[in-house]
């Protein structure tokens, strides 16, 4: 038995078509075009690619998009002033400041300056807090996309299931665990201080790997039939993109698996469009 693939690219294409229709409907009804502003500081190679993909996805969905690129020497004060200007720009419904930022800029300070009403990344403490207490707020795109992938295979409600998350970052691991919990899973969060990772993951019906290291999850660590979601974005020895999961090994035992590329990555961008769409709809109804 080999695992079935959860095709993030195909699911994204379907969801993006729905978003494009929503954007067209909003425009017809209220004259509003959803607008996303992306700020990129510095010349990180990977960031350039991701940011370009985000802007392209916006255009394809009929959104207005603005890409602001700044030199790595930009000061924190200058960046905060740009964020504030975008907070006050009525044509912009979502603001994304690409991470990582240069070391001399405090990412936390920048994120907290984004208006929660435009925090389509879901990184603001108000968004994280809303997720924690079950209030309305923007959900972090990567874990939100993972939840949509689970939903696509009939796993929207995870009552009775054990989910194990590997990683506890504020942008992936922690919000992932909160969303799984909200879907009624029993959740375990593991990290670099976990004594026996395999002992944890072998109990899991759903494993989400969000570490940033190749082969963190191997076939001996997976319960037969489990769902394996690979958030990792790494390069192998040949420079090829790969995830945290030993894909060839794990797919021999898992029930479902997400590929890299073509899995969580495209879904992250799709959920960014979904959040921006929702923000524009809220602005129209305000
Ligand atoms: N596909 C997508 O859309 C996205 C992909 N990514 C990718 O996902 C990965 C994770 O990103 P991010 O959460 O930002 O990364 P971070 O580096 O912020 O977090 C990594 C987490 O993994 C934990 N960890 C490290 N080593 C181990 C280990 N051996 N066993 C168990 N846990 C371990 C760390 O533990 P500790 O807290 O103790 O240090 C930490 O909690 C990266 O590859 C990133 O590129 C990220 C965002 C979006
Ligand atoms: N403010 C902020 N928000 C983010 O959402 C954010 C960020 N900063 N910093 C970096 C991480 C990483 N991330 C990815 C998004 C899409 C792909 C993606 O589309 N991946 C493609 C492949 C892309 C390629 O070919 O390199 C795939 O997996 O198929 C990957 C990674 C968003 N992030
Ligand atoms: Mg910094």
From TrEMBL:
InterPro entries: Aminoacid_DH-like_N_sf, NAD(P)-bd_dom_sf, THF_DH/CycHdrlase, THF_DH/CycHdrlase_cat_dom, THF_DH/CycHdrlase_CS, THF_DH/CycHdrlase_NAD-bd_dom
Species of origin: Diaphorobacter ruginosibacter
Domain Tetrahydrofolate dehydrogenase/cyclohydrolase catalytic: 6-121
Assigned keywords, A-Z: Amino-acid biosynthesis, Histidine biosynthesis, Hydrolase, Methionine biosynthesis, Multifunctional enzyme, NADP, One-carbon metabolism, Oxidoreductase, Purine biosynthesis
Family (UniProt): Belongs to the tetrahydrofolate dehydrogenase/cyclohydrolase family.
SUPFAM superfamilies with a match to the protein in the record: Aminoacid dehydrogenase-like, N-terminal domain, NAD(P)-binding Rossmann-fold domains
Protein purpose: Catalyzes the oxidation of 5,10-methylenetetrahydrofolate to 5,10-methenyltetrahydrofolate and then the hydrolysis of 5,10-methenyltetrahydrofolate to 10-formyltetrahydrofolate.
Any one of the GO BP annotations: tetrahydrofolate interconversion
PROSITE patterns tied to this protein: THF_DHG_CYH_1, THF_DHG_CYH_2
A GO molecular-function descriptor: methylenetetrahydrofolate dehydrogenase (NADP+) activity
Pathway info: One-carbon metabolism; tetrahydrofolate interconversion
PANTHER family: C-1-TETRAHYDROFOLATE SYNTHASE, CYTOPLASMIC, C-1-TETRAHYDROFOLATE SYNTHASE, CYTOPLASMIC-RELATED
EC number: 1.5.1.5, 3.5.4.9
Protein's UniProt name: Bifunctional protein FolD
Tetrahydrofolate dehydrogenase/cyclohydrolase NAD(P)-binding domain boundaries: 140-283
Oligomer status and interactors: Homodimer.
Keyword presence, NADP: yes
NCBIfam families for the chain: PRK10792.1 (NF008058), PRK14186.1 (NF010783), PRK14189.1 (NF010786)
The keyword Hydrolase belongs to this UniProt entry's keyword annotation: yes
Catalytic activities: (6R)-5,10-methenyltetrahydrofolate + H2O = (6R)-10-formyltetrahydrofolate + H(+); (6R)-5,10-methylene-5,6,7,8-tetrahydrofolate + NADP(+) = (6R)-5,10-methenyltetrahydrofolate + NADPH
